[in-house]
Design a protein that fits this description.
The complex is a heterotrimer of chains A (287), B (372) and C (346).
Chain A lengths: L25 E10 L9 E10 L4 E5 L6 H9 L6 E6 L2 E2 L5 H7 E4 L11 H6 L14 H13 L15 H14 L4 E5 L7 H18 L2 E6 L2 H7 L2 E6 L2 E6 L1 H4 L2 H8 L3 E5 L5 E5 L4
Parallel strand pairs in A: 3-8, 3-9, 6-7, 7-8
Antiparallel strand pairs in A: 1-2, 1-4, 4-5, 9-10, 11-12
Chain B lengths: L18 H29 L8 E5 L5 E5 L5 E3 L2 H9 L6 E3 L24 H6 L4 E5 L5 H9 L4 E4 L5 H14 L3 H21 L6 E6 L13 H8 L2 E3 L12 H7 L3 E6 L2 H12 L8 H4 L3 E5 L9 H12 L43 H4 L2
Parallel strand pairs in B: 3-4, 3-5, 5-6, 7-8, 7-9, 9-10
Antiparallel strand pairs in B: 1-2
Chain C lengths: L5 H24 L7 H12 L10 H33 L12 H18 L4 H26 L1 E2 L2 E2 L1 H25 L2 H12 L8 H20 L1 H9 L1 H6 L4 H23 L5 H13 L3 H25 L8 H21 L1
Antiparallel strand pairs in C: 1-2
Helix pairs in contact in C: 1-3, 1-13, 3-8, 3-11, 3-12, 3-13, 4-5, 4-6, 4-7, 4-11, 5-6, 5-11, 8-11, 12-13, 12-14, 13-14
The chains are: A alpha/beta (287), B alpha/beta (372), C mainly alpha (346).
């Protein structure tokens, strides 16, 4: 299927007015965040100021060990959290100032798992992605149906269209969730640890699909993960975090330095370059 | 099939155009018209009520409602057992066209058409009987029922909650007036007063017996001092050890043991039931601490004592006889064997022999009673 | 892929409305007293056409003044409770939620009891007298709604699990207070209270109250219906709903207030009738799925049908005595609930 999912019409709130440097899709500028459960206490967690940029069609990986602030950064980008300092621009608009519906037309988030209270069919689920395009009470029209069908096809899940969500495997569910995100026709696709519950084959499938989709539909994809080799193979940019601090931003070949990675992941490893110019990391056991 | 939905933009804005919709509107319009006319129709239906043809007058009932009732009600519905009994006592039962499921005295009352319970009577049944007066009492019926009758245009007269025996008698006389039978009311009232006066005479020189009136055993519930039952006890030469202002206070057994009543008094539909209630207590823990239980000093009277109606006087008389038999030695009352009340022998006969058939509604309770 | 269309929605609602109409006609006919609907219908038409000025038949009064208002009350109450139940199930993300889970019924009962007690101590004009108890019940419900709302807030927004906890705690507390008050009440007050709490449609309510409840239903159910798409998404998860453009806190507030209003109004005029708000949404879900654009209207109509049927059975099965409608819904509801439970597990 090669029909693009992008609507050629302008979005609902008027024409996009990008800032200068219009090649840039996503721009994170000196963004920091602090979180404390008790306002009078010192913050329990901080994300120090960091910046990076991404173009359409790129895959950015936010990489790091547990509790380094990856998910927090993703939530800042998605507009769910407001940065303490700094700004995040998507095509020139600050993400957290956008109204919820508009934001949902531009940013799609793929969570790890979906807890459904009452079971629904896959197509119902995917159609939910069309929700941002309508006001109040709406019924889906034929365009929505077409877009949803396309989304399912793009993720290779057309054969699952009529299946019940609670009766399919984890990998299949992941594809449906991705399809719903695609149905939103976003500019930015965010994924939070999407490979956690998948087997290796499915993991590779997912990343390969993301790469293809990003290229075909000009998405910017931001993936939070700790899978070193998947990132090394598929990402265009890596943002390396440790304990709330950004240690390096750049293409994998630049970021994957042995000493740096060993320091971050606290494990002996070696890095080698493959013929395609991508780094590969081999972990050793700690003896 | 039914029409087509058109949409104005690719984003699925919801703008339907339906042939069916205009049909829907038409149906809604018809319903609205019917509804509005229905108001007028129901008002007219009420006006066609035949009871409006009778001569009526305004009275104030015992709960201070001003109601318009017929001068002589001919189709009476009673929504409380005590009111049904009163109607029979006044000899007006031919005018009673309906009563509740619980109206069981006199036995003929059970044959009257039933309208349901006292608390939730069936309004349709009442309406179908076309009454010109419905009798209610504050003791038993709900305000909602009275209001419902008002809405339907059916007049209702309410007696007040009874608190004293004299109050019951005057209530009976007032009710007789309302029912257009003032003479019968006077006769009944005078008779009741006379009997009470006679009783007072007989008990004048006798000290009152301390009693506990047992409404329920688990938990132990008695009657408070403002109830008509407490007044009935007083008229019978007894005094309740319960002094609470609550109508149905829960007593602690300790308290009762401390107060040591001379007698326990039970009310039951049949004498055997009352005896059974007592026997059940004898072996219960704690109860044997009561002198009255060990000495088998208990009295059983008819459950007429629970109903504020003329029959309560019989129950009072019966209780008086059981508690103070000495005062009645010279009377012409029908009972034969007067067993002394303060015998402490455990092989003492059960007290069934003293129950007068009257107060229990004419049933034969024991062999000795049947032999009368 | 067959998404819900307006056409399909209206067709299904039309079907339910037709069933409701049939149930109403049958209920008008049934009762402790035999009536001939044909004769009544004939008379009605005569009056409508202006040819005669009054219903001449006896049963006119019975059908129009007693049965019809009761059936209409049943329709509004049944619809209100079912829509409220469906809404709370979505709002609290809990299939066991019913309109009373947040303590509204206990608050209303307490208000009604206090009103009953006050009524006997005050002299009230007859026009107002019929309104005191429902008014008291509604105030009780409103206070409870506000209190539970405040209890359910966390970080400035109401949150499902906190709301549920706050509601259950309130319900327990209020029930205890009610028990206590009931031990201090005397005879007729006590009976009235116990009867009210069982749920009862048999008391004709003042017309003004009926209109109020009807209008309240239209407004509140309408408000909930406009959030149906949002509710569908909310069921998938609050974070996900937010990422799909749902203003979660606004939707929560609207649904909470509207559903509580529906419950408060229903309970004020009919006491606490159980099982309807819990089971009707589940049955409708079994038939037509959990898309709220269909579920809300289906629950409303289904609830109306269920309650009218239950009430009609309650007043005919043991004629001339009446069962309380709450007892009827419990007797039918409990086995149905068990069946539904087993189905979900199986």
């Amino acid at each position: 299927m090669s029909s693009p999912l992008r609507s050629p019409l302008p979005s609902q709130d008027g024409a996009d007015q990008p800032r200068a440097g219009s090649d840039l899709r996503l721009s994170v500028e000196q963004v920091s965040y602090a979180y404390s459960s008790n306002p009078s206490q010192a913050p329990r967690f901080t994300l120090e100021a960091l910046s990076f940029q991404a173009k359409p069609g790129e895959i950015v990986a936010i990489l790091g060990p547990n509790a380094c602030g990856k998910s927090t950064l993703l939530r800042l980008i998605s507009g769910e959290l407001q940065p303490m300092s700094g700004r995040i621009f998507l095509n020139g608009f600050e993400t957290h100032t956008l109204p919820a519906k508009t934001r949902a037309q531009r940013i799609a988030m793929v969570q790890q798992e979906s807890r459904l209270l009452f079971p629904s069919r896959a197509w119902e689920f995917v159609l939910q992605g069309r929700h941002p395009y309508g006001r109040g009470l709406r019924f889906e029209n034929s365009d929505d149906v077409l877009i949803a069908e396309n989304a399912l096809a793009q993720t290779g899940a057309s054969h699952l269209t009529d299946r019940w969500m609670d009766k399919i495997s984890g990998g299949e569910k992941q594809r449906i969730i991705l399809a719903r995100a695609l149905a939103q026709q976003p500019l930015l696709l965010l994924l939070d640890e999407p490979t956690l519950h998948l087997d290796i084959g499915a993991q590779v499938d997912l990343l390969a699909s993301l790469k293809r989709l990003a290229a075909e539909n000009r998405y910017t994809v931001v993936v939070v993960t700790h899978e070193l080799n998947l990132v090394g193979e598929y990402a265009d940019q890596v943002v390396l975090l440790q304990k709330g601090k950004c240690l390096r931003v750049g293409p994998p070949a630049t970021v994957y330095q042995r000493e740096l990675l060993e320091q971050v992941f606290q494990a002996p490893l070696s890095v080698e370059m493959t013929p395609s110019g991508r780094p590969r990391v081999t972990l050793f056991s700690k003896t | 099939m039914l029409g087509n939905i058109s949409h104005s933009s690719r984003q699925g804005r919801f703008v339907p155009r339906f042939r069916c919709k205009s049909g829907l509107r038409a149906i809604l319009l018809v319903f609205a018209l019917l509804f509005l006319r229905a108001e007028k129709i129901t008002a007219q239906a009420n006006a066609a009520n035949p009871s409006a043809a009778q001569p009526t007058h305004e009275v104030v009932d015992e709960v201070n409602r001003t109601v318009r009732v017929p001068l002589v009600p001919m189709r009476i519905v009673s929504l409380a057992p005590n009111l049904t009994e009163t109607v029979y006592a006044l000899g007006l039962q031919d005018r009673l066209v309906g009563d509740t499921d619980y109206c069981d005295y006199p036995p003929e009352a059970q044959k009257k058409p039933k309208v349901g319970g006292a608390i939730n009577p069936n309004l349709e049944q009442i309406a179908a009987l076309r009454p010109d007066l419905v009798l209610v009492t504050k003791d038993l019926n709900r305000l909602d029922t009275v209001r419902a009758l008002d809405t339907l245009g059916i007049p209702s007269y309410s007696t007040d909650a009874a608190h004293t025996i004299d109050g019951i008698i005057s209530s009976t006389e007032k009710l007789a007036d309302i029912l257009g039978a003032a003479q019968a009311g006077k006769v009944v009232g005078d008779d009741l007063h006379h009997r009470l006066a006679t009783l007072q005479e007989k008990l004048r020189s006798v000290p009152a017996t301390h009693v506990l009136f047992v409404v329920w055993t688990e938990p132990l519930i008695s009657a408070g001092r403002n109830t008509f039952i407490a007044d009935a006890l007083r008229k019978a030469g007894a005094i309740s050890i319960v002094d609470s202002t609550q109508d149905w206070p829960q007593m602690s057994l300790e308290e009762v043991v401390h107060l040591q009543p001379d007698y326990l008094v039970f009310a039951a539909a049949h004498a055997a039931e009352g005896t059974r209630d007592f026997e059940a207590l004898v072996n219960r823990p704690g109860w044997h601490l009561l002198d009255a239980v060990r000495n088998r000093h208990y009295a059983v009277i008819s459950d007429a004592v629970n109903r504020p109606a003329p029959r309560i006087i019989s129950a009072i008389e019966d209780l008086a006889r059981q508690l103070h038999p000495a005062s009645f030695q010279d009377s012409r009352s029908p009972e034969k064997e007067i067993v002394p009340t303060n015998s402490t022998s455990p092989a003492h006969h059960p007290r069934a022999a003293l129950f007068t058939p009257d107060s229990f509604g004419g049933a034969c309770l024991t062999e000795s009673a049947c032999a009368l | 892929m067959r998404p819900l269309t307006l056409e399909r929605l209206l067709l299904r609602c039309g079907l339910l409305a037709l069933i409701l109409f049939g149930v109403v006609v049958v209920s008008l006919k049934m009762g402790a007293v035999q009536v001939s609907l044909y004769g009544l219908g004939r008379d009605l038409i005569q009056v409508l056409l202006g040819r005669s000025s009054a219903i001449s038949t006896d049963y006119g009064m019975i059908v129009l003044d007693i049965r019809l208002p009761r059936i209409l009350l049943g329709i509004v109450v049944g619809a209100s409770l079912s829509v409220a139940g469906a809404s709370f199930q979505a709002l609290l993300r809990n299939p066991l939620a019913d309109p009373y889970v947040l303590g509204i019924s206990s608050g209303a009962a307490l208000g009604a009891i206090i009103a009953l007690i006050a009524e006997t101590h005050m002299a009230i004009s007859p026009e107002l007298a019929g309104l005191i108890t429902p008014f008291g019940a509604f105030i009780g419900a409103a206070v409870t709604i506000a209190a539970v709302y405040l209890l359910g807030m966390r970080d400035g927004q109401i949150e499902s699990s906190t709301l549920l906890l706050g509601g259950i705690i309130s319900a327990s507390f209020l029930s205890a207070v009610i028990m206590f008050l009931m031990t201090t009440l005397s005879g007729s007050n006590l009976r009235g209270t116990a009867f009210w709490m069982m749920g009862d449609l048999s008391t004709p309510q003042p017309k003004s109250l009926l209109y109020l409840v009807g209008i309240g239903f239209v407004v509140a159910a309408g408000a909930i219906y406009t959030t149906s798409s949002d509710l569908n998404l909310l069921l998938a998860g609050e974070k996900e709903a937010m990422h799909l453009g749902v203003e979660v806190s606004r939707v929560r507030i609207v649904v909470y207030i509207a559903a509580s209003l529906l419950t408060g109004l229903a309970v004020s005029v009919s006491g606490t009738i159980g099982y309807v708000g819990l089971l009707v949404p589940h049955v409708m879900r079994l038939i037509w799925g959990s898309d709220h654009r269909m579920l809300i209207p289906a629950s409303a109509l289904g609830g109306a049908i269920a309650l009218v049927v239950a009430d009609t059975l309650a007043r005919t099965v043991t004629a001339p005595s009446e069962l309380s409608v709450g007892a009827m819904t419990a007797m039918a509801g409990a086995p149905l609930f068990i069946y539904l439970l087993r189905r979900r597990i199986a």
